[in-house]
Amino acid sequence: MAETPAEKGLACPACGCHHLLVLRTRPHTGGRVMRQRECRNCGRRLITYESLPDRQGWHDLADMADLSESQKKTILSGLLQFFGRVF
Ligand SMILES: [Zn+2]
Q1: Which of 29, 49, 63, 72 has the fewest Cβ atoms nearer than 10 Å?
Q2: How many Å lie between the centroid of ligand 1 and the Cα of residue 82?
């Protein structure tokens, strides 16, 4: 693999699928975030540590929760404020 394991290059180690659902995002030491992900294809779970929160991750999180638009906005703004304080 030529790509570094960045957000867009991330692939399932079991099947190579790039559709990794974010199950959970938590602040981690060193200003990083820990994400638990699950492959949508084979169900393999993995943990990633990322240095910057990225908006796509928040969208994944909200999609999984199947929330209304207003609920998503509330959650997204809350998360961004939270990580704004962390960083
Ligand atoms: Zn997979």
Answers
A1: 29
A2: 31
